[in-house]
Amino acid sequence: MWLFARDPVRDFPFELGPPDADPDAEPPADPAAPAPLWRLLRGRRKADGAPVSVFAHSLAPGGDPAATALARAGLKRLRSLRHPNVLGYLDSLEADGAPVSVFAHSLAPGGDPGATALARAGLKRLRSLRHPNVLGYLDSLEREDNPPELSAPSRGQGDPWAGDMWRLGCLIWEVFNGPLPRPGALRSFGKLPPGLIPPFSELVAADPGARPGPGPLLERLQRPGAFLACALVRTGLFLEHFQVRDPSERRTFLQELPPLLESLPGPFRRHKLLPRLLEALELGSADASALPPLLQVAKVLDPPEYQERIVPVLVRLFSSPERGLRLRLLQLLEEFIEFLPEATVDSQIFPHVAHGFLDSNPAIREQTVKSMVLLAPKLGEGRRGGELPRLLLRVQGGDALGPLRCNATLCLGRLAPHLPAQVSPETP
Questions:
Q1: What is the edge-to-edge ordering of all strands in the sheet holding 91-95?
Q2: Sign (positive/negative) of CA torsion 207, 213, 217, 220?
Q3: Rounded to the nearest 5°, which phi and psi values hold at 17?
Q4: Which of 10, 171, 141 is nearest to 66 (CA)?
Q5: CA–CA dist 281, 316 (Å, integer)
Q6: What is the per-residue pLDDT across 64-73, written as a single tens digit (0 to 9) for each?
């Protein structure tokens, strides 16, 4: 039986829900075709209600023993597998003939995957060489994308990646033409872009020895003018190795990023680029040059999500000892001031910004004075009526730079409507 909303074991820390909206949840078009190895269900963690993806396998009487062996072998392998391109394993159980594996947090709308995770647990072909008997089940499960050498061993097997390259060709065909109805359909290019036709033809070559390896194929597709020579691919590849790049390379990448953002897909900016920029700033692998693209990408977030994901990072950055970073934050303050809660500004941001009034760097002192026009309305009455006027008057009456003294005077004038009535220009 399929396991749906019931919890067969009281101590199991997850609750199971209905099937997810997924092609695998649909009944197979051919009634004689094997049932899917796993069925994707929605679920949640009992402790905090966090969403999870649940993969269930049925052990109903009359099921395919090879499929069950494959499901158990895949689960065993997944328990010990840790890889950024595979959904993370959390827990599993087998009860009443229905094993269930909770693989990873589901990617809720607007959520952050936190890894380049596969949308499905596509480990059906990951097997031990000591268990070759599972291939019979796999071949019957995926007839359309099986390479021809599986049914004609006399062709030879080619390199270890030959079968995967054939299936990559099938995937490329389906991206542009829809589900592959039969292997013979690969002979028609359909809607394939012209730039992909030559490598596609090599991928689905009948001779497995003629199919290219993954490394040379990717290198060729990224040459100038080739299909993958685009801003999206270049940006994604750089982000994959951002932490190990030379600091000058990272800085150049970040400085050149803002003009490219509009050409990048929205989901890529939100789920790939934004988490990497936040991570780089928190780990210290990016300098102030990461702020403009970060704030530009973050504009698509709604206010609650902005406050949850962006504001805590900004608060920590205001306490950074790096002057260039603090200066850039003040220069860009107008970009994010509306999202900063008043209590956060008063208790966590202003104390750090206030040090800038006495900084030895004139640029920081000047930008600190200018920032008060934006920060003062979000300060509590105690700071607006006491600490802030004293700091501005100190600059106005004692700073060595005349233009800075002038700016302090202008700032006091603009802040007058926000100052308590008892505060006067003579305040010491």
A1: 14-19, 39-45, 51-56, 98-104, 91-95
A2: negative
A3: -115, -160
A4: 141
A5: 10
A6: 788 888 888 8
